[in-house]
Specification:
With 437 residues, this protein is mainly alpha-helical. The protein contains 19 helices and 6 strands. Protoporphyrin IX containing FE binds next to helix 15.
Length: 437
């Protein structure tokens, strides 16, 4: 016994621990790559046996590109982790997001969880009933009627965008110059959302620059991929909470506080008579809760949801508008057809509104194509297979498997997947076969 204790030096313990870890890693790799029920799903064995290739791709910012390459190689159903499958099949979205009740594919708690110190929001809520309740409280701001009422607010910023871009290009005139459309579209979408949510714009268009709050978001987006990848390792995540520098935590809190202040100012300011997103939440949230405990939708959730929505609703819109302009500039024929449709339909700017724009078949096709070619959210955070398991696109997925309904990708990487139903919005003319392809 004494001689055994003598040999238990720190060095020996480290070596023994290292060997034990290696053995564990190799055994679990073999199990997940070759024996686990998901081993029948196509995909590289290295990704199926270990989560590390996936995480490496995620933190380098390469995931969307790697997934396209892997889908090309392995097909429309692809295993990308020990318990993770991604789909690029046109039926995947309906099969994953369609089911209700016990068969529902709820949001997966590893991903859909607020970062420490930030309250719950609609987007991060994984509990089916709670999510449905929050969503119902937010829904009045998104009805067709409500959107029509919000139109004058949106118009104001679109007009400002056009005049600011004209001002920017005026000095260079015919000789040409550069316009950073991504910035201008983001200025507009953040300003619109700021107004619809908080009743005050971020004033990006007026200043011709990002509000500091928005600039910080873009600065932290890369760090967020790193933080997200740690979520697979709860022990590391717990330790990390203690080692994150105070300054980082403070920056995060200050960032959130801006939304809290904006929501408070908006609540203090008026009786929610203005037809915007916040009025809808406040009136419906109060109405919903009055039948329950009379307290209204908890303010924490309102703050959390507006914090998330400010980014989700603005950056996504800015990105897809930029992608649309970019693709049109590189496809002069399509641009000319689109201009022709618009000029042939309207005699003056005054005739252009949400309702009349909905009837423009070619314009809507262009927008849908842009969303298909350049989806702003390229990697949908995963859903969880229901406890009893389920079939998706011909593959049996055991309960609890994390996977992604990757509907945005399937037609991009494989032009043959473009079926008529993706083009139902296009007139039957030759353009349908090559728009943006
Ligand atoms: C082109 C623009 C947009 C794109 C491509 C986009 C895309 C998405 C995607 C992919 C999701 C995740 C769906 C899921 O997996 O459940 C999502 C969720 C969401 N988006 Fe957008 N979005 C856009 C604009 C907006 C705007 C303008 C708003 C609001 C002003 C908005 C509000 C939301 C909300 C509230 C959710 C969460 C829904 C829920 O949890 O039930 N989005 N969006």
């Amino acid at each position: 016994m004494d001689s055994l204790i003598e040999h238990l030096t720190t060095r020996n313990l480290a070596i023994t621990g290292g060997i034990a870890f290696l053995v564990y890693y190799v055994v679990s790799f073999i199990y997940f790559a070759f024996i686990h029920p998901l081993s029948k799903v196509p995909g590289p064995r290295t990704w199926g046996g270990s989560r590390l290739p996936f995480l490496w791709s995620l933190v380098r910012g390469n995931l969307p590109h790697d997934l396209i390459s892997l889908h090309r190689k392995y097909g429309q159903v692809l295993r990308i982790g020990p318990d993770e499958v991604t789909f690029s099949h046109p039926d995947a979205f309906n099969q994953i997001c369609g089911p209700t009740g016990a068969q529902q594919f709820l949001k997966h708690p590893t991903w859909w969880r607020p970062f420490p110190g930030i309250p719950l929001s609609m987007i991060w809520s994984v509990d089916g009933d709670q999510h449905a309740y929050i969503r119902k409280c937010f829904s009045p701001g998104f009805t067709m009627r409500s959107l029509r009422e919000q139109e004058p607010i949106v118009d104001r910023y679109v007009d400002l965008l056009v005049s600011r871009i004209r001002e920017t290009i005026a000095p260079v005139g015919e000789s040409g110059g550069e316009v950073d459309f991504l910035r201008w579209f983001n200025y507009m979408s953040f300003d619109v959302f700021g107004d619809l949510a908080f009743g005050e714009s971020f004033e990006c268009l007026e200043r011709g620059d990002y509000h500091q709050w928005i600039a910080n978001i873009f600065r932290h987006i890369k760090a967020m991929a790193g933080l997200a990848s740690i979520r697979f390792y709860p022990t590391i995540e717990k330790v990390l909470v203690y080692v994150v520098p105070k300054s980082f935590r403070k920056a995060q809190q200050d960032h959130f506080q801006l939304v809290v202040d904006k929501v408070r100012r908006r609540i203090e300011r008026d009786g929610f008579t203005r037809p915007d997103i916040m009025s809808g939440v406040m009136i419906q949230g109060h109405h919903e809760a009055s039948g329950k405990d009379g307290k209204g939708l908890p303010l924490d959730i309102v703050n959390g949801t507006f914090s998330e929505l400010t980014i989700a609703g603005s950056e996504s819109t800015g990105s897809v508008l930029t992608a649309t302009i970019n693709t049109l500039i590189h496809n002069p024929g399509i641009l000319a057809t689109l201009v022709g449709e618009i000029r042939g339909t309207f005699r003056s700017e005054a005739e252009i509104n949400f309702d009349t724009l909905r009837d423009l078949k070619y314009l809507n096709a262009v927008i849908n194509e842009s969303l298909r070619m350049s989806p702003p959210i390229r990697w949908l955070p995963p859903r969880q297979c229901p406890p009893g398991g389920n079939m998706v696109c011909g593959y049996w997925l055991p309960g609890g498997v994390r996977f992604l309904p990757r509907v945005a990708f399937h037609v991009r990487w494989d032009p043959n997947r473009v079926t008529d139903r993706h083009f139902h919005h296009l007139p039957a003319d030759p353009t349908r076969s090559h728009i943006f392809s």
